[in-house]
Amino acid sequence: MNFYQKKSSLKSLLAILLILFPVAFWAGCGDNGGSGDSASYTTETENAIAVRVFDGATPAARTSFKVMPNWFLADTSKAASESEYTYSGTTDENGWVRIENHPEGSFTLQLVKGDSAVVTQYNLNKLSPVFTNDSIALNARGSVDGWVALPQNAKYAWVFVKGVDMVQKTDSTGHFAINDVPSGSVDILAWVPQDQTVAGVASIKVEPADTLFLETLKTPDEMEELQDPWRYSRSIAPSKLISDWMKPITLPMVVTIRLDATTFDFATAKNDGSDLRLYDAEGELLPIEIDTWSTTVQSGIVNVRIEKPADTAGTWTLKWGNPTARTFENADVWAGMSDSVMQELNSAFIIGFENDSQKNDLQPPLIPNSWYLGTKVTENLDSIQLHNNMKAIEDADEGRNGKALHIKYSANWPEYVLMGTRISKASRDIGHLDSIEVWIRGNGKYNIILEDLVSDYNHKVEYIGDAKEEWERVVVRPQDFKSDTISYHGWEQTRHNVTHFTVFAFDGTDLWIDDVRLYGINRDDLR
Predict the structure, then answer these.
(1) Are residues 15 and 48 located together in one domain of the fold?
(2) Is the preceding omega at residue 287 within 30 degrees of 0, hence cis?
(3) Residue 417 contacts by C-beta under 8 Å, 6 or more apart in sequence?
(4) Do 465 and 419 belong to one domain?
(5) Helix, strand, coil percent content, the chain, rounded in steps of 5
(6) Domain ends where: 308, 338, 368?
(7) In what order do the strands lie in the sheet with 197-206?
């Protein structure tokens, strides 16, 4: 049974390290045409490698090669079969390994001929789709000797050479010695099956015909984050995150990366997204905040702080899937920003009843939709307002300037009247909603509702309040919604299925509504 199939203790290694995910393997072979004795090689397609191997001064023809992801860990009970390698084969008559249509990711190429063996690591992505090296030298193998700090009561640990089919069991003191390791740079990892923990990791360089003596391996928390083991990456154009309505931009500012099942494989990242890192075009780490992350809903919202114009130049690279990734701490991306900028970038105004129109106040690029009044029983709503909804707009009064909606009704639950409006053209995920702000006064009770009136399921959440005679700023947070998962489905079921904002009124005669605003999202979330 290999590491892709283990179902007992090794499931914990998968969960803890996020190292072992099912992968698709492609058959590969190096015997696909020669390049003569040319000192260089140019690939014809993107996502390709071209590597030439020498044995001394002679091209190493018919040298065996194997390719595995950098994160690969050997089976502790048997050697990997040929079908488990991403690619395998032999170099051509001129010592070339050439692989085209190569998947993206980080990989280890192992070259073996007789007693000589060497490894080299490479990474392919949209920014670096081709890897070439025309002078790799075969060398003698080396050895690694070291120690693992075993947890109390642990009898041994397994020490893996990542990306290579090699594993060694420590003795009861934690000592290990791995012989015949290919020369070159590799990563090693120690796993304690009794405790289901990683006991140590290290990035090392094995010298030919030499033994590398290591001190006790450091745990992931004790060492610096390794840059090579990031398994996955994707390119992001920052210019596409800055919508026209945000311009001219004021720095610092915050832009949002929205991830869903169509743009991101959530099974390849940590359950909370804490292994995500974002780099600018110069390779500098950008400050980010994981606003929301749900593997169940397949949705992630990442806020990025932009400090200077140069931050928006070129292409960003989002990386994830690093087993040595440290515990993620969100950056304070909103620090030092003015209230006006924060409100513009981090809220969406829905309706204010000031435009003498039966359209809501969605701002460009959103298209305003109609607002409407409704009732369960015709007689419940003022007859004038029923036939002309605009008659419900009056001076706000009671210390509030401008206009407001005044619903005159007579209804006792289960009868009701309502005001509603569409806030998005299709179901949208607003899981990172911070709160809803609504100004309300009157008598009786009201329900503030977010719902989906497009799908057959009518997902919805509701908040019930008592209207007061004076204007009150009502702030409803996601945790304030009823948790009823039968009639109203609850927040987790509704958060990614919202099309409408609705207010019910009942057990009274008057309800005034004004200035509805959603915080924690912006216009682009409703597009």
Answers:
(1) yes
(2) no
(3) 373, 374, 375, 376, 380, 381, 407, 409, 411, 504, 505, 506, 511
(4) yes
(5) 10, 40, 50
(6) 338
(7) 166-169, 158-161, 184-192, 197-206
381 and 417 in contact (C-beta within 8 Å)?
yes
**Measured distance CA(510)–CA(347) in Å, rounded:** 29
pLDDT for 180: 97
**pLDDT at residue number 219:** 81
Which pLDDT score, from 0 to 100, does residue 3 have?
A: 29
pLDDT at 119: 97
Torsion from C-alpha of 521, 307, 236, 43, nearest 10 degrees: 180
d(CA 277, CA 21): 20
Q: Which one has a higher pLDDT value, 3 or 391?
A: 391
Cis peptide, bond prior to residue 22, ω within 30 of zero: no
Confirm whether 222 is domain-assigned. Answer: no
DSSP result, 308-320: SGGGGSS-EEEEE
The verdict on residue 391 lying in a domain is: yes
- Strands (DSSP E) found in 390-490: 393-397, 400-411, 417-422, 435-442, 445-451, 460-466, 472-476
- The whole-number pLDDT of residue 46 equals 67
Per DSSP, 92 falls in state -
Q: How many residues does the chain have?
A: 527
Check residue 213 and give its pLDDT.
96
**Residue 466: beta bridge partners?**
445
Instruction: Name the pairing type of β-strands 130-137 and 48-55.
Output: parallel
Say yes or no: 161 and 301 in one domain: no
CATH of residue 315 = 2.60.40
Q: Indicate if 158 and 79 belong to the same structural domain.
A: no
Q: Are residues 29 and 85 in the same domain?
A: yes
Give the pLDDT confidence score for residue 4 in this predicted structure: 28
Q: Give the model confidence (pLDDT) of 400-422 as tens digits.
A: 999 999 999 999 999 999 999 99
pLDDT the model gives residue 488:
59
Question: What sign has the CA pseudo-torsion 410, 412, 414, 417?
Answer: positive
Extract the tokens encoding 243. 């919508």
Which strands make up the sheet holding 277-279, listed edge to edge?
232-236, 316-320, 277-279
Same domain, 313 and 389: no
Band of pLDDT at residue 314, cut at 50, 70 and 90: confident
User: Are 314 and 433 in a shared domain?
Assistant: no
State the distance between the two ends of the chain, measured CA to CA, in whole angstroms.
49
Do the domain assignments include residue 4? no
Q: What is the mean pLDDT of residues 108-135?
A: 89
- Tally of structural domains, the chain: 4
Domain that holds residue 200: 142-216
Most confidently predicted of 331-340, 372-381, 506-515: 506-515
The better pLDDT of the pair 274, 146 is held by 146
- Do 237 and 334 sit in the same domain of this protein? yes
